[in-house]
Amino acid sequence: MRRTLTAVIAGALLVTGCSTPEQPPAPPELPSPQVAVPLTPTGPATPDPRVVTTLNLVHPSGQQTPTRHTIKLGTVVDLTIASTADGQAAIKSLDLVADVTGGSGRIQFTALVPGDHVVIFGTRELAVLTVS
To answer: What confidence tens digit (pLDDT) does each residue in 22-43 have?
Structure first.
């Protein structure tokens, strides 16, 4: 009887001691988004693999000839307009407008429309962006 009880206890310990607890299944991997995250005032919320062209335009009080910039099609454009005067900057051909207050304004877009696009502040042409 003692041998049988010892064998049963040893067998029970062997079975429970050798088994390992089951691991919970790993969560499924989510697909990565196919659309890049738009830029925020402090930069992209997550790393953005697209090329970003940064342009800084200054609206002076004197007469100025518009500057010309070549932009590659598909590039993200981060355009900052600095001015001592408050007003609106616009790229009318792309229907983009930004208020310029407190010294600067910002327009961000992806260059998807080829051609020449004029950046204006009030009635003055600041720059011509050639997207190709």
So the answer is: 665 554 454 443 444 455 555 5
